[in-house]
Amino acid sequence: MVLVLSLFTACAKDKVVETVTETETAKEAETETATETEAATEVEAVEELEPITLQVTTWDSESDYINEIIDQYEAANPHVTVEFQYIVQGYDEKVQIMNASGKTPDVLMMWNTPAYVESGGVVEPLDAFIAADDDIDMDQFYPVTLDWAKYKGQIWGGLPKDVTPRAMYYNKGAFDAAGVAYPEDGWTWADFIEINKAVTVDDQYGFIALAGHTYMLQHFIWSNGGQMISDDGLSASGYVNSQEVVETIAWYKEVYDSSASSLVASGDANPGNAEFMSGKVAMMDNGSWPIASLRDEEGLEFGVVVPPVPAEGVPFKPVVHSATWSMYAGSEQKDAAWDFIKFCAGPDGARIIGASGFSTTALPVVNEELGLADTELGKFMEILEMPTNSPEFTKSQYYWESDGAFGAAVATILLNDADIQEALDGAALEMDAILGQ
């Protein structure tokens, strides 16, 4: 009897197990069917979306990473085709011509926000798109990048593509050969003069100073407590000719007189980069763009340091370079343009830009994620965290026109030994007339 009962119990258990297994299999089959149905529905939904072609225009020569961004966006949005146009020269002028003809792209790269806004009909303010979109977190960007995009209280300039402050590069080999210690953060203007002279040996100069590069001067002017024009952008008198600016230009005149001022160089693009790479100068003031090419230069060892400050303990106020992904006001597919802008400026697009080594991204969290702090770009990340002034050019559409008067005054000071106060007083009057028009 016991043996029969045991056999019956065992059989019963086997039946229960078989029944449970069959039930689980049936449920799994139902789940798989449901998943397949959902996937098919999603595919059908994507297929039902109206095909969209977005026109995107930039000046950026680093088009490889832009193409990668476009590839990833199109893969995630199969109904969208992005046509990319790269304008080699005369970007701003050509965009204005395109706008006049009604052929401006849906998305364009921009930097001079006031000029584009005041020219009329080129860019769309993005405040309404930002307010209506729960997926965009404006706090994810470095604050200074949003200052670039703002004009008269609105975000006209779009969302930031990337950002770099200016920093001081130094050639370790040149310093070693001259027996001079490498510069360190917190060094002063007086230290810079001394080091500049010490590493100037034979046919090598310490630094390359450019008479026409006024933008570089701004971080020195700001760090000394000065500014170029009034906060409302209407005047320069009392600002560009202030004691703080006079002191800054006087120091830079001393730098210029002891630097490689005779070498052929321009205030455009990467001033001093070629001279630095060739070993003709031991230091250069620049953004992060040369990093990739400097790394590839055989035998070149370099470091990056925060530029010097007026005196010990004075905080450095960086000037930055940035650009924005902006929307054309005449676009007939603004929602799609906004979605693409979000993707480019968000973590997905930023990771591609950061991985390229071209620049720090506009998102601190992505820079950390990519480990950029452990590379030469780490110094640029440190500088980006330093409090600074709002960009001077965002105060007025006429800023860059007025800057021509300042640049001419600086050139007469550096090249012709003009009296600094008199030259800047004259520049201030010219700038007032331009800014007040």
Low-confidence stretches: 1-29, 39-46
* Largest sheet entry: 5 strands, mixed
Number of domains: 2
Derived from helix and strand composition plus strand pairing, the structural class reads alpha/beta
Average residue pLDDT: 87
Note the topology.
Elements: H1 2-48, E1 52-58, H2 63-76, E2 80-86, H3 91-100, E3 107-110, H4 113-119, H5 127-132, H6 143-149, E4 150-151, E5 154-155, E6 159-165, E7 167-171, H7 172-178, H8 189-198, E8 205-207, H9 214-223, H10 243-257, H11 273-278, E9 281-286, H12 291-296, E10 302-305, E11 320-327, H13 334-345, H14 347-356, H15 364-369, H16 377-384, H17 399-416, H18 420-435
Parallel strand pairs: 1-2, 1-3, 8-9
Antiparallel strand pairs: 3-11, 4-5, 6-11, 7-9, 7-10
Summarize the structure.
The chain is α/β, with parallel strands linked by helices. 49% of the residues lie in helices and 13% in strands.
What does this structure look like?
There is one protein chain. With 437 residues, the chain is an alpha/beta fold. It folds into two domains: 52-164 and 321-384, D-Maltodextrin-Binding Protein, domain 2, CATH 3.40.190; 165-320 and 390-435, 3-Layer(aba) Sandwich (D-Maltodextrin-Binding Protein, domain 2), CATH 3.40.190. The chain is built from 18 helices and eleven strands. A five-stranded mixed β-sheet has the order 2-1-3-11-6, with helices on both faces. Strands 8-9-7-10 form a four-stranded mixed β-sheet. Helix 2 links the parallel strand 1 (52-58) and strand 2. The radius of gyration is 29 Å and the shape is globular. The model is unreliable at 1-29 and 39-46 (pLDDT under 50).
